[in-house]
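Need a sequence for this fold. Nothing fancy.
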């Protein structure tokens, strides 16, 4: 007897959407296309010339790859066969934010980098016991 149409578990799906990518090389190819043909661009006027500058973002990449959220994109980083590919793509976007720090109006890049675990101050954490002897000899 065929499974009822509304019962996904009876059809072999154990809950959740099937993965977008099963082949790491396919994902890497799509990521390379995003960086080559970035659909998000900013128009800048430099002197008398108009230029289109690509704008690379984590959300833009996740959307381009077909994910519905950053979290779904990040979840692929936990899969060993996709981990290196995702980390390299994230590093490439992080590099672009870092390069933006060389120009004026860097607040957005600073915000993005802080969300990528950058810090603008050094924090020190001390541990261990402290023993102070208040006795006089």
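Here you go.
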């Amino acid at each position: 007897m065929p499974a009822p149409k509304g019962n996904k578990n009876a059809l072999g799906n154990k809950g959740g959407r099937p993965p977008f990518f099963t082949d790491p090389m396919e994902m890497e190819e799509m990521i390379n296309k995003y960086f080559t043909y970035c659909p998000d661009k900013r128009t800048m006027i430099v002197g008398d010339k108009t230029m289109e500058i690509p704008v690379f973002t984590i959300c833009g990449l996740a959307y381009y790859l077909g994910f519905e959220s950053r979290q779904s994109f990040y979840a692929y980083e936990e899969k060993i066969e996709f981990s290196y590919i995702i980390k390299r793509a994230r590093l490439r976007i992080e590099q672009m934010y870092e390069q933006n720090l060389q120009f004026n109006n860097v607040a957005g890049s600073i915000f993005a980098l802080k969300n990528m675990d950058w810090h603008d101050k050094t924090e020190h954490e001390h541990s261990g016991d402290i023993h102070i002897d208040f006795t006089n000899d």
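For context: Residues 55 and 96 are 9 Å apart (CA to CA).
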